[in-house]
Every structure is written in C-alpha cells, then in structure tokens.
C-alpha cells in the first residue's frame, strides 16, 4: 500500500501544480534556515535544488542572493513554471531517485521533497547526494521525527510521507562524509518542520 501511494506522488504534483502554487506560502518563513545554508557556500556558489517545485519561494530567494540554481523536479508543470520565471537558470524534469547529472554543486537542498520517498528510497539517496556534492558542500533537507509513514492529502488525494529515525539519518550522513551542522526537530519557527543542515568534509 505504501509503495503504491509513494509511486503516486509524481502524478499528484503533475495534476495539481496550479493548486499547489495557490496554497504554497511565499512568506519565506524558511529564511533563517536558508541563510544558514547559504552561509556555508562560497559567494555566487552553485546550488542543486532537488524537488524544486515551481521555484517559489526558495529557488527565487537563492537567485536573488546571487547564487546559481539548478532545479530538478519530477513534475513537468512545476518545471514549466520555473522555466517561465527564471529562464536564465537550469531546470530539468527528473526523478531524484535516479538523478545522475555528472556535475557537482556547492550546496544541495531537498526541502519538503525528500520525505515523499519510501524509507528504502531515502536510504539510497545519500549516495546520490554525495555524488553531486563538491568538497565542503552543504546539504539541507527536511524529514519526519521518527521511523514511520504518514499520509496527508492534496486535493483529496493521499499524499505519502515517510521518515527514518534520526539515528539512522545520522549514520547515513556519516557514511557519506556529511557532518551535522544543525538539526532541529519540529522547529516552531519553521512551521514545525524537522530540518537537517549538514556539510561534507574535505
């Protein structure tokens, strides 16, 4: 059941890209975390936004701060919106689970996207993160608080989420050379999100 729900995520965001845009807050409540993330990057660094959605408001914020963004999302309608808004940046339709860009970035972010994967797919993502990371690259992502699955809704359709235990995330990060810079569970200043900010070693 959970795998079929997870497989439906791409279709949901293709069908409801317009509704998502209407409902997605653009108040930048995420800004304190985005600033911490950018503080780990070189000036004018290159960012890979994994599950970039329509580019608002996060990619937009990075671009306005002078960073170069490459955004990938599995939803063509989302990428179409990115291309319309920010034609000078790089955008591509891609499934993060099979991402292989043959390029490395100064920062990687998977904000409110990575947690739509099954737990097994999440485990496999850490190698993909590492393959796209320059030395000392920052990696930031959101997760759940404990090992398990949760189902939300978007326009009446089941919206799958999953999480590993914090201890397993720490182990997977360590195995790939990422050190945890900051982790806050259910951050009250960020809409209750659990946020991981990490950095790759030398």
UniProtKB/TrEMBL annotation:
InterPro entries registered for this protein in UniProt: SAM-dependent_MTases_sf
Pfam families: Methyltransf_23 (PF13489)
Keywords: Methyltransferase, Transferase
SUPFAM superfamilies for the chain: S-adenosyl-L-methionine-dependent methyltransferases (SSF53335)
Stored CDD domains: AdoMet_MTases
Gene Ontology biological process terms, A to Z: methylation
Listed Gene3D superfamilies: Vaccinia Virus protein VP39
GO molecular function, one term: methyltransferase activity
Protein name: Class I SAM-dependent methyltransferase
Organism lineage: Bacteria, Pseudomonadati, Pseudomonadota, Gammaproteobacteria, Enterobacterales
